[in-house]
UniProtKB/TrEMBL annotation, chain A:
Signal sequence annotation: none
Keyword Heme on entry: yes
GO MF, any single term: nitrite reductase [NAD(P)H] activity
Protein name (Swiss-Prot/TrEMBL): Nitrite reductase (NAD(P)H) small subunit
Organism: Sphingobacterium haloxyli
TrEMBL record, chain B:
Database matches in InterPro entries: BFD-like_2Fe2S-bd_dom, BFD-like_2Fe2S-bd_dom_sf, FAD/NAD-bd_sf, FAD/NAD-binding_dom, FAD/NAD-linked_Rdtase_dimer_sf, NasD-like, NiRdtase/SiRdtase_haem-b_fer, Nit/Sulf_reduc_fer-like_dom_sf
Domain BFD-like [2Fe-2S]-binding residues, every copy: 420-468
Every FAD/NAD(P)-binding domain range: 5-299
Protein's UniProt name: Nitrite reductase (NAD(P)H)
């Protein structure tokens, strides 16, 4: 249900630009955002593209998967993993990533930042 | 008989353990607990984790309802303020007065605060309870320079916690001339300091703090030697002080330096009153560790229940629990001549220091210290505690795992049944082995559930793991090496399943044989199996997102997020034209070039967007992928051989090229390297390779399972004086056998080390065909060879694959603008890591 909030949805890309069960990188207002289409769970996630570990713009190229029931992404550099829904670091470090709401309408993807 | 009332003062770790223990005893006891802290007992040992990923809920020692279920009255936030020992009555701050039959002190200790002027200033903290940590966490947001007074176990833990909270500039101030003065010696301390430095911790030794500088808030420390240290947050961790004030007021005997005096039954000077944990003084000693506290709790509970049990002191061996820093001390770490001989090992290169103190007859281990590498801690501790005989050459104990790959299971066998493996929970070897044999526990988690072993400080977990494996092996049980939570199969089992069911994509494999949605462990393993089995283009069928990051973009990722390009140069032979092409491409796309250790050329620093264009040009000039990114054949090094060399027996370059072209692109459990030398001078270093070939007068000698890298190992002779055709046959069989049976990321050398029967068995399989698999394997290999395609050629020509090589999908022509290079010796290099938040 749509509610009246101040969230501003920004057009990110078309569904066919994304990759099933993987991530792509989107540039929105000069911010790099990693957008994941977790097809196996039929869910979309958006997070910051920067891995907080060594601050590399890379998370969109990470492998996604699950830990128990938690959806996660693993950074390609040192395999630190982050929850896609909450952004928390699942490898026992104290760093987390930002996550953003995603919606799909008419084959177009919107991200709220 | 009327129930006996037992009042417990203090709801800390040991007080809680006492409640557990006495609840399980026979007899009718009514327990009433008074705790000063507002929350029920929690795991103080893992307090630091509360600053990290653990919440209070994770730390509680029991469920909320536990006390109720056990009919225990718990009064939290209500400390006892007075005791009337003649009326046997306690009075709480909130005004309760309760009569007791037995009274138990479990009041623990508080941080000792030295009388330094200024300790009351804002920004000075203690490190003892949840409240302290909440205050510290809040204050660190406005602090930049940290200091910790006290370089003991706790001080170092607190200092590391400050660094982890973002105070990168933190110093540890220690009065003694070394760190952890009670546990380690000076050389160990030096090694430890170097290690801590790399984590961002500076150590100031022999510093006595004179006063704390600053008006209202702390601004720094001033030392007796008139030097100063800037700091805006300080943690004091200079030792502990038993909480004996209430006992003292009640007239119980107190030690001269504090602590409630107890006998071996934990009884104080009043026979109805007991004391356990850090407030109790037994034989002039306060035990500042949880394991002895637990033992005391058990002793007091047993005594009250009328059983016979005595406390007879406790081993104070400890391991520092800092991520990435191994420090352990056991037995008597300092004993030396004339009472003992010491064996020392100091490796400044690797940051390792080890010390063993052995009896002068060389037969027993008395104690020791381990810094930098402490994997043998548990076994050494057991050797001391059980007075086990030392091997003839005790110095071998310092070298850790032997290179032959044999584990220390012989040591486990020698351990007596009553050896205490988990001292926190008092669990013996026999109990753990029983859990495996009788309760079917097959991993550490289930052993922990059954026996509680490993649920305390966790230091014994590696040993429990070894014991489980050892016991299962003894029973002839098969040890499952399952890949991860998503697949309950070993790599070898999955190989067969995928093959029989002819599965071609990761998703199919997961749907058929797995659960959940996969992860970064199983995806590359399955992808590698699919590639080894079918040799199809790895980026097709949705398998691209299941590839390890290097495979996914057919290039090695570098710092900053650019990639390297390594064209195949078989045998290291290259024409001038091709050299020119490489130069031109490198110039055009601004790439750093380097000759690699594998006789080829690596071009570094390519943007993701440029990769297909670079490869298009290389392919046009006749190059193909070098698979430097894949777990596949890398290079077959060659020496120049008989075509030019005056010693050369055969044409090693031609044979190297033939071999490289045969096995290129084939995926395996780990990378494969090879070499062909034209004579025994061995200029191609063939004996350091997964498979190496050396020319002889009569043909070739074939060596297998060699390895460079971190644990070098020479290859072993598999067959001698064979002709080229036989050599390739043997190689086909050898490689297929390895691909089929090795664990993920296991090089051939390790694979052979784990193989029962070793090289003789392998020779029997490969040369004598003892498994009757040769024909199958040769056919399978030929099928893989026939299916070869250059992945890069396929990638640049397939628009669906090619379109993935962009950084921004909504701005495909833009490159990642955060990538930075610097200049060096006329070429570019990647800039260092961006400032990281954690280490
Ligand atoms: C480029 C090169 C260094 C050089 O400038 O010479 C190199 C570079 C890397 N090596 Fe290496 N190794 C290179 C020769 C070697 C050699 C020497 C050799 O092959 O004769 C060895 C020791 C021999 C051996 O492997 O037995 C070597 C042992 C390793 C190891 C340790 C392997 C082991 O089993 O212990 C790793 C780590 C791994 O693979 O897990 C590694 C991993 C790496 C990686 C892939 C690290 C990574 O994941 O990013 C480096 C990638 C660089 C890049 O981005 O392209 N590299 N590496 C050499 C490329 C050779 C080639 O043309 O393909
Ligand atoms: C950060 C940290 C790390 C540690 N790491 C380790 C480790 O790795 N290994 C190890 O073995 N040990 C470690 N320890 C020590 C270990 O935590 C203690 O040995 C253990 O907690 C002692 O238990 P206790 O019940 O005696 O005291 P405590 O756990 O301190 O409990 C005593 C309780 O009694 C309460 N109390 C005091 N007076 C009264 C009163 N008058 N009325 C009511 N309640 C009162 C206190 O508020 C407290 O809650 C660590 C300690 C800290 C602080
Ligand atoms: S030795 Fe280490 S640093 Fe050098 S190339 Fe190999 S992996 Fe990289
Ligand atoms: S940069 Fe992401 S894990 Fe290290």
């Amino acid at each position: 249900m749509e509610t009246l909030t101040s969230t501003s949805w920004k057009l990110a890309c078309r569904v066919e630009d994304t990759i099933e069960n993987g991530g792509v990188c989107i540039k929105l207002d000069n911010t790099q955002i990693a957008l994941f289409y977790f097809k196996r769970r039929d869910e979309w996630f958006a997070t910051q593209n920067e891995c907080p570990h060594k601050r590399q713009m890379i998370l969109s190229r990470g492998m996604i998967g699950s830990l128990g029931d938690k959806p996660k992404v693993a950074c390609p550099f040192h395999k630190k993993t982050f929850a896609l829904d909450t952004g928390e670091c699942l490898s026992g470090d104290e760093c987390s990533i930002k996550t953003y709401p995603v919606k799909v309408e008419d084959n177009l993807i919107y991200i709220a930042i | 008989m009327r129930e006996k009332r037992v009042v417990i003062i203090g709801n800390g770790m040991v007080g809680h353990r006492f409640c557990e223990k006495i609840s399980n005893k026979k007899g009718d006891f009514k327990l009433i607990v008074f705790g000063e802290e507002p929350i029920r007992a929690y795991d103080r040992v893992h307090l630091t984790d509360y600053l990290g990923k653990k919440t209070l809920d994770d730390l509680f020692m029991s469920e909320n309802r536990w006390y109720k279920e056990n009919n225990i009255d718990l009064h939290l936030g209500d400390p006892i303020k007075k005791i009337d020992t003649t009326k046997k009555r306690v009075f709480s701050i909130k005004g309760l007065s309760i009569d007791y039959d037995y009274l138990v002190f479990a009041t623990g200790s508080s941080a000792f605060v030295p009388p330094i002027p200024g300790v009351e200033k804002e920004g000075v903290f203690l490190y003892r309870n949840i409240n302290d940590l909440d205050l510290i966490r809040e204050y660190t947001s406005k602090a930049t320079k940290g200091a910790v007074i006290g370089g003991g176990l706790l001080g170092l833990e607190a200092a590391k916690a400050l660094v982890d909270l973002g105070i990168n500039d933190t110093a540890v101030v220690e009065f003694a001339p070394r760190l952890m003065p009670r546990q380690i010696d000076e050389l160990a301390s030096n090694t430890l300091q170097t290690k801590l430095k790399s984590l961002g911790l500076t150590c100031l030794l022999q510093k006595s703090t004179d006063h704390i500088v600053g008006d209202r808030k702390i601004e720094g420390l001033s030392f007796a030697d008139e030097t100063q240290l800037e700091a805006d947050i300080l943690i004091i961790s200079a030792g502990i002080k038993p909480r004996d004030e209430l006992a003292k007021a009640a007239g119980l005997t107190i030690g001269s330096r504090g602590g409630i005096v107890v006998d071996e039954h934990m009884r104080t000077s009043d026979p109805a009153i007991f004391a356990v944990g850090e407030c109790a003084l037994y034989e002039e000693m306060i035990y500042g560790l949880v394991a002895p506290g637990y033992e005391m709790a058990e002793t007091a509970a047993a005594t009250i229940a009328g059983e016979q049990k005595v406390f007879s002191g406790f081993d104070m061996s400890t391991k520092l629990k800092l991520m990435g820093v191994d420090v352990a001390s056991f037995g008597d770490p300092f004993i030396s001549e004339p009472y003992a001989y010491t064996i020392l090992l100091e490796d400044k290169n690797k940051g390792i220091y080890k010390r063993l103190n052995i009896s002068t007859d060389g037969k027993r281990l008395l104690g020791g210290i381990l810094v930098g590498e402490a994997s043998s801690y548990n076994m050494l501790l057991q050797t001391v505690n059980n007075n086990m005989p030392l091997p003839e050459h005790p110095e071998t104990l310092l070298l850790g795992e032997t290179s032959s790959g044999k584990s220390s299971s012989s040591g486990l066998e020698a351990l007596p049944d009553n050896a205490l493996i988990c001292s926190c929970e008092g669990v013996t070897k026999a109990t753990i082995c029983d859990a495996v044999t009788q309760q079917n526990c097959e991993d550490v988690d289930s052993v922990r559930k059954c026996t509680k072993a490993g649920s305390g400080c966790g230091g014994c977990v590696p040993m429990i793991k070894d014991l489980v494996t050892y016991t299962m092996k003894q029973q002839g049980k098969y040890i499952r090496n399952s890949i991860c939570e998503h697949f309950n199969f070993s790599r070898q089992e999955l190989f067969d399943l995928i093959k029989i069911h002819e599965l071609k994509s990761y998703d199919e494999v997961l749907d058929n044989f797995g659960t959940g949605h996969g992860c970064e462990s199983c995806k590359p393993v399955v992808s590698s199996l699919l590639a080894s089995l079918w040799n199809e283009m790895i980026l097709g069928k949705g398998n691209d997102v299941a590839q390890d990051s290097n495979d996914r973009f057919l290039a090695n990722i570098q710092r900053g997020g650019t990639y390297s390009v390594v064209p195949r140069i078989p045998g290291g032979e290259i024409t001038p034209e091709k050299l020119i092409t490489i130069g031109e491409v490198a110039k055009k796309y601004n790439l750093y070039t380097k000759i690699t250790g594998g006789q080829r050329i690596d071009l570094f620093g390519a943007h993701l967007n440029d990769l297909p264009f670079i490869w298009e040009e290389l392919i046009t000039a006749g190059f193909e992928s070098g698979h430097a990114y894949g777990k596949a054949l890398r290079t077959v090094k060659s020496c120049v051989g008989s075509t030019w060399c005056r010693y050369g027996l055969h044409d090693s370059v031609s044979f190297a090229i033939q071999i490289e072209e045969r096995y290129r692109g084939i995926r395996s459990p780990h990378k494969l390297k090879s070499g062909v030398s034209g004579c025994i001078r061995e200029c191609a270093e063939a004996q350091a390779k997964d498979f190496g070939i050396i020319a002889t007068e009569k043909g070739w000698n074939l060596y297998v399972c060699g390895n460079g890298g971190s644990k070098p190992q020479h290859a072993q002779l598999l067959a001698s004086d064979i002709d080229s055709e036989t050599c390739i046959k043997y190689l086909d069989r050898f490689l297929m056998f390895y691909i089929r049976t090795a664990d993920p990321l296991m090089r051939t050398a390790t694979w052979l080390n784990k193989m029962e029967g070793g090289i003789d068995y392998l020779r029997n399989v490969v040369v004598n065909d003892s498994l009757e698999m040769s024909e199958t394997w040769e056919n399978e290999m030929q099928a893989l060879v026939n299916a070869y395609q250059c992945e890069w050629k396929t990638a640049v020509n397939d628009p669906n694959i090619r379109k993935r090589f962009v950084h921004f999908v909504n701005a495909p022509d833009e490159k990642d603008d955060t990538v930075r290079f610097e200049e060096m010796r006329g070429q570019k290099k990647a800039t260092g890591w961006n400032n990281s938040m954690i280490y």
